[in-house]
Amino acid sequence: MATIARSQTLANRSRMTLSSAAGWYVVLGIASVVTIFPFFWLVTTALKGPNDAVFSFPPQWIPYEPTLHNFTRVWQQITVWRFFLNSLFVATCTVILNVTVSALAAYPLAKMRFPGRELIFYSLLATLIVPLELTYVPGYILAVRVFRYDDTLWSLIFPNVFSAFNIFLLRQAFQAVPNDLIDAARIDGASELRIWAQIVLPTVRPSLATAAVFTGVTSWNALLWPSLMLRTREIYTLPVGLNTLRGMFSADFRLIAAGTIIAIIPILIGFIFAQRYFVSGLSGAVKG
Amino acid sequence: MKARIWSRVTPYLFLAPALIFMSVFTLYPLVAVGYYSFTEYDILRPPTPVGFANYQHLLNDNVFWLSLRNSFVYLIVTPTIIILSIALAIALNRKLPGISFFRTLYYIPVITGSVAIGIAWQFLFNGSGGPINGLLIWLGVIEKPIVFLTEPDFILPIAMLMTIWMGVGYYMVIFLAALQNISEDLYDAALIDGCNRWQKHWHVSIPGIRPAIVFVAVISSLSALKVFDEIYILTNATGGVLNSGSTIVFYLWKQAFRLQNVGYASAIAMVLLIITLSFSIINVRLLEQRDD
């Protein structure tokens, strides 16, 4: 009886899926228009010629005299590709250092017994409460007075190496690794560092991806701290560079729009190649 | 003997890099901010202790209270973002041709970053002929264009719209992953029990993704309380006319790095710490309740 009922509901479901597919496409389509519209507006503004109105009533949707002139002018005046490479460098270094340091710290917390473990664990837990924004004032003074690395890209990397969140994420993942696996390696005489690198790390790849995505996206989008640290134009990250773009071309919205699009394009290309990792990385956050 | 000592220090060696970075970049700043908050300090000259003067000043500072209020008002984005991203995740959680295209599309605002989006937003809401004004006039909602970004009443709602628009794709991916973990059998059982298409989401999907909802509620409400980028970009670093868009982190930034009142900014930072601390305690309570 149950199986018959079940196969009937399955049949119903597929029929319902067919009839409602159109409805779902409408929902997804509306959401797509809302998502695309701001970008569309940037593109149409960037393509407008000198005689097309940027702002008018009613708004001018399509340029009458489309031109690529705005793009070439921005490209000649500011080095967007350089901002992009700076951002890429900072995000890559931050992710590698942060995930390595977090994974190192998470391993003994998950798999070793030693005096002070609880104390260290709860101190780390407590730092989760400290808002990053609170550290900006003393961090600034440290950077300018002590480390003297303000106006270098390292000032964007080192303060973001420690992340209690990633340590907890990875500690939880490590706890799920069978002890037998680790004990067997210990009996074989493998060092703890080797066990960590060759046995434990490969088994928690999804959690490493999660930590990397969270850290990478945060670093990539950071605006406040980098704009406090960076003064030399050559080492601007994308957000800082884009922000100054507005000041440079304050009167000409076509150029601002063109610069913004030049900055978005490499991000889009990179994302299309890497999106598999983004999606699986974020998914790890809820499976944890 | 040597090997034994080595094995004893091993765990500490693993922890050392994290503890060093934590001490320099989290613990030291925490202590320093606490100290600065009781001083007058402009970075150039050494700090001079002033007792509770900064905190007393906070009590009478209208801009501080306005910023605090705005930060709490900003929390409205959290329920909105949760509802929208769950709805989008449910729409995406089915096998239709082209579904992965939509998923990619909705994620784009997350990676383009707040500055690019803020620039687009300034265009959209432009007061001398942006498309939003055009649309509202065409619909007959308004007669004259509104200069949205310099209207004290509009700056915060527009910033919130931007936060929501940027965040939905991010949280949608988290909810989508949670939805995909729910067993198909539960939906079949719900259908047999006579649930219709909408009821099954209420009875199966929502309870099934509850851990993800709690997770998103925690991270999105904390980031809403600490909003800065949207205000900074949309108001061109002014905080809006009459500070109408100022939030607690924006005001902290302004006092510390525009006005060089480091001591006063540190007192604001301590208030921020107390707020996030209370929030974390509430969150832990909520999580414990769920486990019961």
TrEMBL record, chain A:
CDD domains for this protein: TM_PBP2 (cd06261)
Q: Does the keyword Transmembrane apply?
A: yes
Q: Which stretches make up the ABC transmembrane type-1 domain?
A: 84-274
Q: Pfam families, alphabetically?
A: BPD_transp_1
Gene3D superfamilies (alphabetical): MetI-like (1.10.3720.10)
Topology in the lipid bilayer is annotated as: Multi-pass membrane protein
Which named protein is this? Binding-protein-dependent transport systems inner membrane component
Q: Which organism is it from?
A: Chloroflexus aurantiacus (strain ATCC 29366 / DSM 635 / J-10-fl)
From TrEMBL, chain B:
- Compartments where located: Cell membrane
Q: Which PROSITE patterns match?
A: ABC_TM1
**UniProt-recorded name of the protein:** Binding-protein-dependent transport systems inner membrane component
InterPro entries, alphabetically?
ABC_transporter_permease, MetI-like, MetI-like_sf
Report the sequence similarity comment from the record.
Belongs to the binding-protein-dependent transport system permease family.
How is this protein positioned relative to the membrane? Answer: Multi-pass membrane protein
Chain ranges of the ABC transmembrane type-1 domain: 67-283
Any Pfam family from its record, for instance, is: BPD_transp_1
Transmembrane feature ranges: 12-38, 72-92, 104-124, 154-179, 207-225, 231-253, 262-282
* Gene Ontology CC terms, in alphabetical order: plasma membrane
Report keywords, A-Z.
Answer: Cell membrane, Membrane, Transmembrane, Transmembrane helix, Transport
One GO term (biological process): transmembrane transport
Q: Where is the signal peptide?
A: none
Q: Is the keyword Iron assigned to this protein?
A: no
